[in-house]
Amino acid sequence: MVSLRRLKPFVAGILGVFIAGLGHLFLGRWRRAIAWMALVIVVGELFFSPETLAFLEATAAGGFPFVAEQPPSSPVVLEELLLVSFVIVASAVDAVLVGIRTLRAEDAAAANEGEPAEEETWTCPNCRKDVETDMEFCPWCAEPVDPEARG
């Protein structure tokens, strides 16, 4: 079975594709997350033309899923959307790299202390799945667990 801790960088990357900075929030890197979110906003404010904003408003007005009824009428709109998409993908890649670097640092610190690098887990009494010890609730069933019951 794959350790839950080993999946964190990849979950962070997937989250970062949907919203820039969300993967960093998942990893607990608050300042870095805010920086990526601010970068997307700044890029949008600096580079989006009124035509691109009108295209986005028309797409969002169609409801979920956000699919445009017509392609962008100008290549400039496509270029501006690709620029923001590039920033979002860069945020996701950065979240994966930060997560991997954090795992390696934790493994190295555990090796220096002579402790095993594997995490300790407890079993949720409600759904019987493994959960990391630092969690206060089960991420699978959202059941809060008393610290004394984590044996």
UniProtKB/TrEMBL annotation:
Residues 119-146 form the DUF7575 domain. Keywords: Membrane, Transmembrane, Transmembrane helix. The keyword Membrane applies. The keyword Membrane applies. The chain crosses the membrane at residues 6-27, 34-56, 81-100. Coiled coil: none annotated. This is DUF7575 domain-containing protein. It comes from Haloprofundus marisrubri.
